[in-house]
Design a protein that fits this description.
Layout (H helix, E strand, L loop, with lengths): L2 H6 L11 H14 L8 E2 L2 H7 L4 H13 L3 E4 L3 E4 L5 H4 L14 H8 L26 H13 L14 H15 L8 E4 L2 H12 L5 E6 L3 H9 L3 E8 L2 E2 L1 H7 L5 E4 L13 H14 L2 E5 L24 E6 L11 E4 L2 H15 L4 H12 L2 H27 L4 E3 L7 E6 L5 H10 L5 E2 L17 E5 L5 H15 L3
Helix pairs in contact: 2-4, 6-10, 7-14, 8-14, 9-10, 15-17
Length: 491
C-alpha cells in the first residue's frame, strides 16, 4: 500500500489526553506490524508528513525518534527514513490464527490449566451462606495501614530481592506462635513463607511427586488440594472419611505404595470431624514404613470453640515425614495471600529453592507488617476477638437450624471452623437445592462438590450442605435460614 495513503489515514484524536506524538507513534507502529507499512518502505520527509496530517513538525520528529529507538525505523541524514528491515516479514504479514491452528499446550500444561475447573470461586458480593470466609470488617485495617506505612517510610536494603524462605523476623515469630498454639516442633529455618497455602500445596505436589505417582486424597475433601496433585501429574487415590477422619486402613489396603497423603486432621473439610488418635498413629506408621510424605493442611485451627486447639499431627511425627501447611487467609483476610510451610529439616532447603523458582519470594512489605502485627500483640488480640465473634455466629446458626429446619437437617460436628455441615433428613437433591438457593439469593455449597469424581462407593457420604457463618451478621444468618426453610419445605 502507498505510504502516503497509509499515513494520511492514521487515526489521531485531539480530544484525548494522550499527546499527539504518542498517538502518532502508536498508529505508525500498528501499521508497521500489520504490514500496511512494509519493511523497506520509505517514509515522507517530515515537512511532507506535516502536509498529510495537520500536526507540527516537532510532533513528527518525536514520533520518528521513538520508532527509531525501538528499531521500527532506520535512516540517516540525506538518505531518508525507512521502515526497518529488522521487522521480520512473517510478523508484518501475520494474520489472526484460527483457534484450530493454535499450537497446543503440553500435556503437563493442559493438566495445570484444567486442574481448578471444578473448584468454586467467589464471584459476587457476600451473601448467606458463603463458605471459607472470615468476617473481613473485623480486621483492624487502621492498625495494618499504620504498620505498613511505617515500613514504607523507612525503606532499607531488605526492599531489594530477599530470602526465598521469607522475612526472617516473621519466621521467628511464627515459630514461637506455632510451638505455643499447635505444638509444632520446628525452628525458623524450617519455615517457608508462601503466597497463600495454595502455593504451598502446588510446590509440594510438584517437587515431592513424579508424574504417575499415587497420592491419597480425602474424599470428600478440599478440591484445591486435589487440583495441585493432578496438576503435578499424580494419580489421585480418593480415600474415604468417616467419624474418625481419613480411613487409613482403606488407603493402606487399596493403595499401599502411595508417595503422599493429604489430610486435614484437626478439622476435616468439609465434614468437620477431627482425626482420632489411633488413625493419626496409623497414618504416621504407614508413612514411615513406606517412606511416604504426609501433608497436614491446618487451615483454620485457630477457631476452636470448645476447649484448647488440638495438637498438630506434625507434633506427633518422629520420622520426619509430615509437612505442616498453614494459612493466614482465615485468620486475617484472604486477599493478603500469606501462608507458610513447616518442613522437616531434610526437606526445608529444597522447598526454599523451589519457592525461588516460582516467584523468587513473597512480597516483603506485607511480611514485615505481619511481623510487627504479631510482635505488638495485635495478632493475638485479633484471634481472641474473632474467635468470640465466630462462636456467637455459630450459635445463631445452630439455634436457627433447630428452630427453622430441625425436621429437614441435622448437623455434623460444630466445635471449630468457619462453617458447619448439615445433612438432609429427607431425600432432597443437593444440586437442585443449591440452584434454588442461588435463585433466591443465598449460597448453598453441596457436600457433593467436595467428592472426588473418581471416588469409589466407599467414599460416599450422606447428602447435605456446607453452611458458612463467620462472615455473616446474625440477621443475615436468620434471613438466610428463612429462605432455606422455604426452599426445603417446598414453599
Amino acid at each position: 500500500m502507498n505510504a502516503f495513503l497509509v499515513i494520511a489515514a492514521l487515526p489521531l484524536d485531539r480530544t484525548l489526553a494522550t499527546p499527539l506524538f504518542r498517538q502518532l507513534y502508536a498508529a505508525m507502529k500498528t501499521a508497521i506490524l500489520d504490514g500496511s507499512l512494509a519493511p523497506g518502505t520509505q517514509l515522507p520527509p517530515t515537512r511532507a508528513f506535516c502536509a498529510l496530517l495537520p500536526v507540527s513538525r516537532q510532533t513528527v520528529l518525536n514520533a520518528y525518534a521513538l520508532l527509531m529507538a525501538e528499531g521500527y525505523l532506520a535512516g540517516a541524514v540525506g538518505k531518508g527514513t525507512f521502515v526497518s528491515h529488522a521487522v521480520p516479514v512473517p510478523v508484518a504479514q501475520a494474520r489472526p490464527a484460527r483457534p484450530g491452528l493454535l499450537r497446543p499446550l503440553s500435556s503437563r500444561g493442559q493438566g495445570v490449566v484444567t486442574a481448578m475447573e471444578t473448584v468454586a470461586f467467589h464471584r459476587s458480593p457476600l451473601r448467606a451462606f458463603r463458605v471459607g470466609m472470615p468476617r473481613i470488617d473485623h480486621f483492624p485495617f487502621d492498625v495494618w495501614n499504620r504498620l505498613e506505612a511505617r515500613r514504607w517510610r523507612r525503606p532499607d536494603h531488605r526492599f531489594g530481592y530477599g530470602d526465598p524462605a521469607g522475612f526472617l523476623p516473621l519466621r521467628e515469630l511464627l515459630c514461637v506462635y506455632l510451638q505455643a498454639s499447635r505444638g509444632v516442633r520446628c525452628t525458623p529455618q524450617q519455615i517457608v513463607i508462601t503466597s497463600g497455602s495454595q502455593q504451598a500445596l502446588f510446590l509440594l505436589s510438584t517437587i515431592l511427586l513424579a508424574p504417575g505417582d499415587a497420592a491419597w486424597m480425602e474424599s470428600p475433601g478440599y478440591r484445591g488440594a486435589s487440583a495441585t496433585l493432578r496438576a503435578a501429574g499424580a494419580q489421585v487415590f480418593p480415600v474415604p472419611v468417616d467419624g474418625e477422619g481419613l480411613d487409613v486402613a482403606y488407603g493402606a489396603a487399596h493403595c499401599p505404595h502411595a508417595k503422599l497423603a493429604y489430610v486435614t486432621p484437626s478439622h476435616q473439610l468439609p465434614l468437620g470431624v477431627s482425626m482420632s488418635l489411633p488413625r493419626r498413629l496409623a497414618l504416621l506408621d504407614w508413612a514411615a514404613r513406606h517412606k511416604a510424605w504426609v501433608v497436614e493442611d491446618d487451615y483454620d485451627s485457630e477457631y476452636r470453640y470448645t476447649g484448647a486447639p488440638l495438637a498438630s499431627l506434625q507434633s506427633q511425627d518422629r520420622a520426619g515425614c509430615v509437612i505442616y501447611v498453614g494459612t493466614l487467609s482465615k485468620v486475617l483476610f484472604p486477599g493478603l495471600r500469606l501462608g507458610y510451610m513447616v518442613a522437616p529439616p531434610a526437606l526445608a532447603e529444597a522447598l526454599v529453592q523451589a519457592k525461588a523458582v516460582v516467584d523468587r519470594h513473597t512480597a516483603i512489605v506485607p511480611q514485615m507488617a505481619l511481623a510487627d502485627f504479631i510482635a505488638e500483640g495485635h495478632f493475638a488480640r485479633h484471634i481472641r476477638r474473632t474467635r468470640d465473634s465466630n462462636a456467637g455466629r455459630r450459635d445463631v446458626l445452630l439455634r436457627g437450624l433447630a428452630r427453622e429446619l430441625d425436621d429437614q437437617l441435622y448437623c455434623g460436628p460444630a466445635d471449630s471452623g468457619l462453617e458447619l455441615c448439615a445433612y438432609f433428613r429427607g431425600t432432597h437433591d443437593e444440586d437442585t437445592v443449591s440452584r434454588g438457593g442461588l435463585e433466591r439469593g443465598i449460597e448453598l455449597r453441596p457436600l457433593g462438590h467436595y467428592a472426588d469424581p473418581c471416588a469409589s462407593a466407599a467414599c460416599a457420604t450422606p447428602a447435605g450442605l456446607l453452611l458458612g457463618f463467620a462472615a455473616l451478621a446474625a440477621d443475615e444468618i436468620n434471613d438466610g435460614l428463612r429462605v432455606l426453610g422455604q426452599l426445603l419445605h417446598g414453599r
